[in-house]
Inverse folding.
């Protein structure tokens, strides 16, 4: 295998997913929170037609959903697959267009009239941008976007004004965290206007060593510049993480492998476990898979588990407010997923 | 099940094994370290004939071994089954008579001319005494024991003079240890002339919470009194341990079960493990089996593992003097025993 190709594969090990969303609004309507039902229906119809009645290939690739017509369970499934937000399903004025391969979803009448989101597994921010940009063009041909020559696209919340663009990648940085290099990474990123934050946990602590790198600014920069900045810093972070993994491997040797398998053994056996411990063990297992030690599970199953064991998700599953009971349910949930 | 019967079963949970040995010497010979080869052969012959040519049922129940005639591997197997000592196999003057069911072994020309040992699983000190006493009677009818009216049987080492009796039970006391009651038990036992010591580990620390209760004195007491003392204190210790287990169960609830299964999960998965950690995890698993939580393994397998993972045993198996390498081998050994 050639070296650059190998490097590409290594990158997919660190990056869990790439996400881009655009916020867009139509010129002739108030923002969604002020919309009347007939107006929201008009917007839904216009967006639906822009995609489904157009003469592009897109028209066969999307499914249309109107929130008020969906069963609760159908909405639930869309939320769980990260295709629409919980806010949208609570909103009877909402709609959604979802690409059949689930890489693109367009929420209608959520915080903005349009929230176009592309979500790809792995390090594919450029692919995500190409696709979302193309869809934005198709929509713009058919809709009157609220746009100001000086500041750009207008949005419901001022933090999104300008490009309306939020791009992010989700990365797993266990080796940088263990070696104490995470703060350096945070600082480097913030100096070029990017935010790095732990996804789970609070403050600078990230349970499971999962971080999100995203742009803080949407205004005063071109879309390509924003994407390029994230791509650039991400490549550096990925390389640093991969080199930190080699360092750990050299420092710890078989003790690193031992840690991976013990983590798996504990999660397969525990009867009570809180989300912090579970996240840290899952992080170990994920690293163990990515470094080639564990092969009985796929990283994607671990990524999924990391979402599913969160307090909010578990609360929804089991509806238990007692901490011990929740830790018992979580342990059982994990055992069932890992002991197949 | 009636209450007393249930109580009997509970006792077997705490007591791993019961052991009695008698030291005896013949009047017409020097102690073994001063024996000439022809004398040692005479002694072997006399003991052999006393058992095998007698007119009791014993004659069909024993196998005879002469150390100089055995292959190394045969000696090794006898040692590993706790039937003869390492000292005996190094000694070309030695012999052994072993009961076919392996409950009794008679070592000839070890430290004393005769070392008669009974080893039973569980709390069976009285059965062991009945059997060993009967065998001692048969031998005494045929051999001239070195005996002094005032002090009793004479032995090679003065600490065994008198009854020549050492009786012991091996107990597993994890709950007493966890609740901090072990020192009270040690003191109570020592006040009636018994010694309680951790089998593995050093000083008062017992890795794996395995203790041996044995008589310190062999002189000035009748055999039945010694056995009776150990039986009595053991019953008290067993009851205290069982009640401490109930306390732990009430205090910890599912966290106790969690600990049992995590211990099992870790031992099934670890790639590096030292004997201290392994012993403590095995102790947890043993308690988990005895309290009815774990049923995929038998306590006897855990008892066996506790012996096999000791540094000396592992050194013999793998012949590795490097600590890390030994911890790696130990982890592998345990995984192979537990993942069946």
């Amino acid at each position: 295998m050639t070296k650059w190709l190998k490097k590409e594969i290594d990158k997919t090990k660190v990056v869990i997913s790439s996400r881009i969303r655009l916020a867009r609004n139509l010129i002739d309507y108030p923002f969604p929170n002020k919309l009347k039902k007939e107006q929201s229906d008009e917007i839904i119809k216009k967006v639906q037609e822009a995609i489904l009645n157009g003469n592009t290939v897109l028209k066969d690739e999307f499914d249309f959903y109107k929130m008020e017509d969906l069963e609760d369970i159908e909405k639930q499934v869309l939320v769980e697959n990260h295709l629409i937000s919980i806010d949208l399903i609570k909103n009877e004025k909402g709609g959604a267009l979802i690409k059949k391969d689930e890489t693109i979803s367009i929420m209608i009448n959520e915080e903005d009239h349009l929230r176009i989101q592309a979500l790809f597994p792995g390090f594919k921010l450029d692919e995500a941008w190409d696709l979302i940009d193309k869809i934005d063009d198709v929509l713009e041909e058919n809709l009157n976007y609220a746009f100001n020559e000086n500041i750009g696209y207008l949005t419901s919340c001022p933090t999104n004004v300008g490009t309306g663009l939020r791009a992010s990648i989700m990365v797993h940085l266990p080796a940088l965290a263990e070696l104490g290099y995470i703060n350096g990474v945070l600082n480097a990123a913030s100096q070029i206007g990017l935010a790095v934050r732990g996804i789970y946990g609070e403050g600078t602590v990230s349970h499971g060593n999962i971080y999100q790198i995203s742009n803080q600014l949407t205004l005063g920069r071109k879309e390509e510049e924003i994407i390029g900045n994230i791509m650039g810093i991400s490549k550096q972070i990925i390389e640093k993480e991969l080199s930190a993994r080699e360092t750990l491997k050299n420092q710890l040797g078989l003790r690193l492998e031992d840690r991976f398998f013990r983590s798996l053994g504990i999660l397969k056996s525990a009867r009570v476990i809180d989300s912090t411990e579970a996240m840290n063990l899952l992080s170990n297992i994920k690293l163990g898979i990515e470094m080639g030690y564990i092969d009985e599970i796929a990283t994607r199953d671990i990524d999924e588990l990391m979402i599913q064991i969160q307090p909010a998700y578990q609360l929804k599953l089991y509806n238990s407010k007692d901490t011990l009971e929740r830790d018992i349910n979580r342990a059982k949930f994990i055992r069932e997923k890992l002991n197949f």
User: Anything to note?
Assistant: The domain at 4-241 of chain A is CATH 3.30.590.10 (Creatine Kinase; Chain A, domain 2). The longest strand of chain A covers residues 15-24.
